[in-house]
Amino acid sequence: MTIAKGKLRRLVPLERWNLVALGLILVGVSLRLMLLKQHWPWTDSDEGIFGLMARHIAYQGEHPTFMYGSFYMGPLQAYLGAAFFHLFGSSLLALRLGLVMLFALFLVALYLLTRTLYTPGLSLLTLTLLSLGSPYMLTYELRSYGGYLEILLCGTLALLIATWLALPTSPTLSPRRLLLRCGGYLAWGTVVGLGLWSDMLILPLVGLSGLLIVLFCWSELVRLFPIVCMVGGLALGMWPLLAYNLHAPPGLDTLSAVTVQQQGPVPLHYTPALVWQQIKATIQLSLPTISGNPFCPVSEVPVLRDPTSAPTLACRLIHLGWGTGYLLLFLAALGLAGWDLWRLGRRPRLEGKANKQADLVRASARLLLLIAAAITLVLFIHSLAPLKWPSLHGRYLIIFWIALPAILWPLWQGARVTWSFLPRLRQPGRALCLALLLLLLLFYGIGTAQAFSETATAQMYYQQDMAFVQRLEELGITHFYSDYWTCYKVAFLSQERLTCGVVNQQLQPGYIRYWPYYWATHADHHAAYVLPRSDYDAALQALMAQQNRHYRLTLYRDYFIVQPVG
């Protein structure tokens, strides 16, 4: 009876932690649904592509392997959007519901991973922070861009499953236990394959979670059945990617596409000045953006209509201070994880062998998670991303969201330990760590409030876009030529009543992701031109000067609408 009561006392806190975690996840989901109801964030043509793919999957029976116009990004979000289209009809909100589902599953997986590697308290703090977030963070959780939420979910699950497999188990496996572990290896392979198909940015975390399995499960791996399960799961998860690359033309395979994406069509010639520029841009803009800095937002692409601040001295200091502080915290977490693993390796065997191995597995998983983030950071600095649009491209560092509990661990430990090795700094140190955690929580709350303050603007943009669609339909337009950022957004919002061909400023084929639209527009001799005033003045003059055709010009907001007459 006493033993039963003791077990019950140990289980009740676990249930309480889980209930609090469920509540935090529901709060995060509710906040995102409230934003989506207000059409925040505003949409663009990149999201329009996923909306069009979802429509074609739902209503035309298409089964695309990649995002239109690319050979490396799986369209899982489009398939989820298609499922919600069948339930609620084709709309921007229905397209985004799949993202909320993926994000909720990510929070569940990250909670379980943090509970496994750290403490219940840190897991709840992590959930609280990620239930909130800066406008930039919330945008990439709610705008269908493809890949990013899949990285979060599959990457977290890969490390969670690898840790579960690596933790010590009974040396004699029953048939049921053996079947369960085979299922674990199969599940790891499946989520890894799905993640690789979705976006290759997951590769560092995939590789290091696999290393964790190799280090601690080698005695099982030599039996071959786990390898068969992992390879089978991997083939299952990434089958569309494998099937395409088996027959891909030279230069159009996934590896070539990823290489061009990473380095550009012309390889960089690295110099100390160039490397310093990449490091500086990463610290000043990319790291603050991806880690949730809500102050002084930067948007390098005006057409996206995202808020941007003036490059004042105060904003530069905020960016530099946040980025430097975050990098130092990350390096401290990396050093602490390495120290913990080294210390565990030298610890005498005062405990049972299973307990020591469990501690070693957890310490190794912590370090490998941070190493995966470090590899991602180094690859990012070495790429074109920080040179072109360092703030916008900060999303390529999204693995840092998975590593958030590991990065916060030094502050969490500092707020809880007794500082016995520096007794004079005990109280100031604990106060400083606690203050930094509370400030981070406050800043994430401010970021969430900023997102809600932008809902009126989002509603205005949505109404303007729908009014624009209505105006084009009133003019009798069904096909039109336009720039990339207008074309696919209008096509999706109009439910494909309007389709388009993308042209550049010389009215030649531009950045075309979906060629059937362009050929249909090209075949229509009455296709109109819908051109942004800011970029197409010269093109308009050349078009109107043509002697063999006559056009009617209509001005609508920031657009020239040019229709052929006769």
Give the ordered list of helices and strands. HHHHHHHHHHHHHHHHHHHHHEHEHEHEE
Side by side, the strands of the main sheet go 2-1-3-5-4
Number of strands: 5
Uncertain runs are 1-12
**Average residue-wise pLDDT:** 90
Cα distance spanning the termini: 93 Å
Number of domains: 2
Shape: globular
The biggest sheet, with number of strands, parallel, antiparallel or mixed sense and barrel status, is: 5 strands, mixed
Q: What structural class should be given to the helix and strand makeup?
A: mainly alpha
Cα radius of gyration in angstroms: 26 Å
Strand content: under 5%
Task: Give structural notes.
The protein has 566 residues and is mostly helical. It has 2 domains: 2-453, no CATH class; 457-565, no CATH class. The protein has 24 helices and 5 strands. The protein has helices at residues 2-37, 45-60, 76-88, 92-117, 120-131, 135-142, 148-166, 175-198, 203-216, 218-221, 225-237, 239-245, 254-263, 272-290, 313-346, 353-381, 385-388, 399-402, 404-416, 426-453, 455-474, 484-493, 515-523, 537-544, and strands at 479-482, 499-502, 528-532, 550-556, 559-565. The protein has a 5-stranded mixed sheet with strand order 2-1-3-5-4, sandwiched between helices. Strand 1 (479-482), helix 22 (484-493) and strand 2 (499-502) form a beta-alpha-beta unit. Helix 1 packs parallel to helix 5 (120-131) and helix 15 packs across helix 19 (404-416). The longest helix is centred in the first third of the chain and has 36 residues, at 2-37. The termini are far apart.
